Amino acid sequence: MRHPTVPLPRIGMRVIKTAVAVMVSYALFLPFGLTYREELGGVLGQIGPLYACIACIICTQSTLGQTFRQGISRLIGVLVGGILGTATLLLGPALENLWLKTLVLGLVCVAGVWLCLLIKRPTACGMACILPCVILITGVTGVTRYYYAIARMIETVVGLLVALAVNAALPDHRPESQREETDRRMEVRNSTRKLCVIGDPVSHSKSPLIQNAMLRELGLDYLYLCQPVPRGRCGEWLECAKFAGYAGFNATMPHKEELVPLMDELDADARLIGAVNTVCIREGKAWGYNTDGAGFLRALADEGISPSGKRVMVLGAGGAAKAVCLKLAQAGAKVTVCNRTPEKAEAICAHDPEHLHPAGFDSATLSQQARRCDLLVNCTSLGMEGTGSQFADFSFLDGLKPEAAVVDLIYAPAQTELLRQAGQRGHRTVNGFGLLVNQAVLALEHFTDTEIDAEKMKACIARVL
């Protein structure tokens, strides 16, 4: 019986830097006996390493490429919060009233965040100012309150400075290309042309992030936006897009099939698949394309996989599966479409009965089909990040030929449980990142009429995802 293994988490540089920073900050106080000793009196009697360690953890847990910048922001935030908190101490005995203290704490925290936003610092600055406000206002009473306040400020500033120093001193082993801070600012000119993605819902889409990254890398004068369009309103949106001067747009669910009859021209893949995911607007006319199937074949080619003459087992019968199956059949593969709802699989197979054959999704059928296939492609959402859905049983992988590759269209997570299980059995595995890049590159080529190096774009997109 095969027992599942639990992968151990990797200890990354961020974890190491945090641990080192905490140890260093603690060591700065301990040799001098600065651990809250009342007999020392004054500030020294109140000081200790606790808040220095907290500040170290907060600062070094920032994204590695931005730790220095965010550390400075937090330092500014601590100073803003410290000034506000110390000024509030002038209220003296009035702060002993619980209700007044609660109200003042809320007002001072809001004021601190507002001041940090006013000086246009990142969010880290505003969040950092809250800590000293809480420390100062809720601290001990009487004259020792001021000693307490100063001690907490010293600890926090020491911790932040240690974190910045450790981050600068320890090496960064990431590839050079990944060390650059991602700049997501876009310069918009009067000549800038607009692109977007439409859907319902669409706010979760990564298309703006991906396309704007490629546009910056290529130096093209376009801006890519996100536009919610309700189901059934594509016709109205198309007229608006033409009027507003859009160069084109991508479409996600549920608009891909709705757009087909609205197009003035359709490319061969859009006709074949019966869905449009890319629309170019040229001289008032709408040209519809589908880049999903071609993007998938390009992704296979990048991995050195040719579907011609192979037996392919496709899991799922949704929109993505349809594009994949029809293009695989066109490339000369024999495809078995496995789906829980037989009617959906049969509908896809009806387009090319010679190359496409429907099958069920039960454990026995999957095992039977797996023994015959040369390539397995998962087009379902099983194993996708955030869905919580998963294959009930992976035993069908035991019947795969040793040389059979397993492809999953999912790219988040990068290694789904299906790919992990296949890898444990010695199979070559490929995730959906290549498809994501290639279909996006194809769309951008249509929009800009520019030939694009997909390999170069892979590195560009990997930096922003």
Overview of this protein structure:
The structure is a single chain. This protein is an alpha/beta fold and 465 residues long. The protein folds into 3 domains: 13-169; 193-290, Leucine Dehydrogenase, chain A, domain 1 (Rossmann fold), CATH 3.40.50; 294-431, 3-Layer(aba) Sandwich (Rossmann fold), CATH 3.40.50.720. Helices cover 48% and strands 12% of the residues. The protein contains 18 helices and 12 strands. The strands form 2 sheets. Strands 2-1-3-5-6-4 form a 6-stranded mixed sheet, sandwiched between helices. Helix 9 (207-218) links the parallel strand 1 (193-199) and strand 2 (222-228). Helix 3 (50-60) packs parallel to helix 7. The longest helix is centred in the middle third of the chain and has 26 residues, at 144-169. The two termini are 38 Å apart.
Set out the fold topology:
Layout: H1 13-29, H2 42-46, H3 50-60, H4 67-88, H5 98-118, H6 123-137, H7 144-169, H8 176-179, E1 193-199, H9 207-218, E2 222-228, H10 234-243, E3 246-251, E4 265-266, H11 268-273, E5 278-282, E6 285-289, H12 292-302, E7 311-315, H13 319-330, E8 334-338, H14 342-349, E9 356-359, H15 363-370, E10 375-378, E11 405-408, H16 417-424, E12 429-430, H17 433-448, H18 454-464
Parallel strand pairs: 1-2, 1-3, 4-6, 7-8, 7-10, 8-9, 10-11, 11-12
Antiparallel strand pairs: 3-5, 5-6
